[in-house]
Amino acid sequence: MTDAHADDRFDLLIVGGGVFGLGTALEAARRGRRVLVLERGSIPNPVAASYGPSRKIRAGYTDPYYAALARAAIEGWHEIERETGDELLVRSGNLVYTALDQQPHLDALDRVACDLGTPVERLERRQLAARFPQFRGARRALLETEAGFLRASACVAALRGLAERRGAIIATGREVKAVEAGPSGVTATTVDGARFRADRALLAPGGWAGRLLSELGAILTQTRLGLLYLRGLPAAYHTPQMPAFSCPDTGFYGFPAHRDDALKVAQHVAGEPIDTPDFDRATPPRGFLEAARAFVRDGLGLAPDAYPERAESCMYNLTASADFLLDFHPAEPRLFVATGGSGHGFKFGSVIGAVVMDRLDGIPSDRWSPQCSWSSVVAAPAAARLR
Ligand SMILES: Cc1cc2nc3c(=O)[nH]c(=O)nc-3n(C[C@H](O)[C@H](O)[C@H](O)COP(=O)(O)OP(=O)(O)OC[C@H]3O[C@@H](n4cnc5c(N)ncnc54)[C@H](O)[C@@H]3O)c2cc1C
Q1: Is the CB of 109 under 6 A from ligand 1?
Q2: Is 76 a pocket residue for ligand 1 (Cβ < 6 Å)?
Q3: Does residue 181 sit in the same domain as residue 310?
């Protein structure tokens, strides 16, 4: 894109080409808005959180707000699959299992699933040993049958493609250094000095948010999380024999091998603090590899050294409450912020746009919750929690 558009005026200017930014670009374009997306890297972006072979999609939440929104997101991704013809959501099921006598998290998930009518199967030890022998020592589980995983980078490419098909302008390699809001609109200035104008701006810069708006730096924490990939596994560790899984006892979760993609293991924990979002993604956090290999050996019954592996890091962008921040800037009504995916935001990429656009358009919707407001996210107690 040349700077030809520097003289244009857009309805909505979006900073950030991850799933929050592109999900909104698609919805804004669907609503006939003139949209410009400025992304500092490529799309999909290897250093962004919206990247890679897989992100879990589940309605298994203890919070009914996210459980209901996730069910809408599952339908949203199926709709995008129908429009693109791509396989984006692999319906492998999601198995949440415990090896413990008591697992309150599992009981809480079960209650919310009952209340919302989320299709789940309840499995006991014998059934688990027969159907999913991959999970050593599993005593009890919930299998969410409509859940599974999203082919993350393919999803990002699909959102971009559909948004551009509806007229959105998407520019890569354009880093925004400042966004100024005034009575007549907003102006974004990129590091190379180009200026772009719009009525309003959406800031969806992920873990780089604090660089763009210092006040966001005080609300958000970035941490480093490890990912382990194993190749060449027996068929039992591939779809369709193995579901996506998570074990709340340890925080380990993962995805079966699928097509050319390796089995992936990770741990849903707060993560290792970092002092810059531009850290080396090729190195896993300290201690992660040893812990992940032990889980692969003891939890999945695989000899980790027998299979080629690759380990790397990725970045969580956390709010203290693990709620998303989806709200107007308290002092700049022309600025809206969508960030704080907190390790669970990707799945909502198919509906986040409608949530944001309804707020921008003043349309009441139960898909937005006050827990995502600026005041609520700021007021949350400092102790990081996860969802
Ligand atoms: C290890 C890991 C596992 C996860 N697992 C899951 C999962 O299983 N299920 C799930 O739902 N979620 C999961 N998540 C969370 C999910 O990936 C994120 O919540 C989501 O991708 C956040 O999207 P985003 O658009 O906010 O940020 P990002 O994807 O990080 O995108 C932000 C973009 O903004 C760009 N940008 C930043 N600053 C500027 C600027 N100044 N100018 C221009 N562009 C800019 C960046 O280059 C980047 O491309 C996981 C995250 C991690 C790290």
Answers
A1: no
A2: no
A3: no
